[in-house]
Amino acid sequence: MATFTTSDGLSLYYTDTGNGLPILCLSGLGRTGADFRYVAPYLEEYRVITMDYRGRGQSEFDKNWRNYTLAVESRDAVELLDHLGIDKAAILGTSRGGLNAMMLGQMVPDRILGVAFNDVGPEIDPNGIKDIMAYLGVKPSIRTHAEAALILPNLLGGFIGVPASRWMEEAETHFVDDGAGGLNLTYDAHLRDAVANETESPDLWAFFDDLAGKPLCLIHAAGSEILNDKTAQEMRARRPDMIYTNLPDRGHIPFLDEPAAVTALKDWLDLIQ
After folding, report:
1. Is the peptide bond before 129 cis (omega within 30 degrees of 0)?
2. Which of helix, strand or coil describes residue 179?
3. How far apart are CA 85 and CA 201, in angstroms?
4. Range of the domain at 65
């Protein structure tokens, strides 16, 4: 298992596969590097790096949950690049990963080659935050992965035509056996406290604008409760050169192996190489 140690002493898990242009993949809020398992086969000509943020997946949990912030997570990402000896990388950010990508654009702008946003933008729909807080950090009452697979489509919403096998894979990825006949979260439940404690946030529109000159891509789920149409339209107005695709049968978040998503990512990467 590959790990590195952060400047404040935590052991974080990462994967590093392939060669070529480095793509640092940053996952969603309560998710892990496994977010990118579906798109990975389409990126075999690139060097694909994923990480589990602190407090998620196979990374060490932070004793101080107040460190579960964009600033600290972005610092960890920079330290991973340093650990791997990578000077510059493209960033593929899913949900919260896109917010971290914009943070990286402020922290180390010369090291960011471009950003692909998976269903996220500088503004988060308040209704989406409300929906997430309904389950974030709450131990599941369901007891089996099969039950979870049945519940996930309704819990997430906006998904049409997704086979049952995919939902089972999602259930097995995002929930673990608790050793007592039930399921548990794959992340520190205190992440809920950290999100609830976020009373102030930076002007991410300014951060988005500061990505000027870097190739951008936006993958937008038509049924998203996080990225609404107004925000997506404003992003496109500010960056008319940004590659954009709308996925009509997806909610938050797209799996990234949808044909239109793969095409958009390939077109974006062609601009960087």
Report:
1. no
2. coil
3. 31
4. 3-125+201-272
Using DSSP, state whether 135 is helix, strand or coil: coil
Residue 149 placed within a domain: no
Give me the number of domains the chain comprises. Answer: 1
Tell me the whole-structure pTM to 2 decimals: 0.96
182 φψ region: left (φ > 0), alpha (ψ -120 to 50), beta (else):
beta
Q: What angle separates helix 96-107 from helix 70-84, to the nearest 10 degrees?
A: 70
- Mind listing the pLDDT tens digit for each residue in 208-231? 999 999 999 999 999 999 999 999
> What is the predicted pLDDT for the residue at 101?
98
Strands 89-94 and 47-51: what pairing?
Answer: unpaired
Q: How many Å apart are CA 97 and CA 70, to the nearest integer?
A: 9
Structure tokens at 129: 């935050």
**Residue 176: count of CB within 10 angstroms of its CB:** 13
Domain assignment of residue 246, yes or no = yes
Task: Reduce the DSSP state of residue 183 to 3 states and report it.
Answer: strand
Residue 181 located in a structural domain: no
Asked if pLDDT for residue 86 goes beyond 80, the answer is yes
Q: Do the domain assignments include residue 33?
A: yes
The total of other beta-carbon atoms located within 10 Å of residue 167's CB is 20
Q: What pLDDT, on the 0 to 100 scale, is given for residue 200?
A: 67
Cα gap 53→262, rounded to integer Å: 24
- Which CATH number fits the domain that encloses residue 66? 3.40.50.1820
Q: What is the distance between the terminal CA atoms of the chain, rounded to a whole angstrom?
A: 30
- The CA distance from 23 to 228, in Å, is 26
The whole-chain average pLDDT of the chain stands at: 96
